[in-house]
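Can anyone check this?
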Amino acid sequence: MITTEHLENARKRARNYLQRAGIVLTPEEAASIEVADFGLGELESTGLQLVVYVNTQRVCAKELVLFPHQTCPEHRHPPVGDDPGKEETFRCRWGTVYLYVEGEPAARPSARPPAGREANYTVQYEVLLHPGEQWTIPSNTLHWFQAGDEGAVVSEFSTRSTDEFDIFTDPEIRRTTVVDS
């Protein structure tokens, strides 16, 4: 749970990061930046700020903003009905992103899971993304990501987003953010 003040501060910070990346938002988009604390109330370590441009039955486009060392927790996008699950491409626009997916574990990972939650981060194949670099994550693939020292802005291009069906490794995660006034 986060407070209204914390929500607005996170939105303001996210707008600043997007501006640094040269991304222009409409006033409506800027006012409605989603702040996801994943139900943990630990936004600085586990969280994500999002702008959804479009999410139709076939495509989705978003901007993801991560503050310094902020982590989007390990999850996968499972099949839903006849849909095989979301396939997504991350393209780094600003900052550095450490993406972890299934595969051979990195000998010395650059990012560290949030303290006390290490057991919920099981995939350790490391993909380092700098501005202009991208990586495609197949559907139903476990993954998590974390910003570097200065934070990051990532554009996400994907098939239809059904985030409400995401499966998180950490059983305490809740996708919907609760705001307490």
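Reply from J.R.: I decoded it. The chain has a mean pLDDT of 96.
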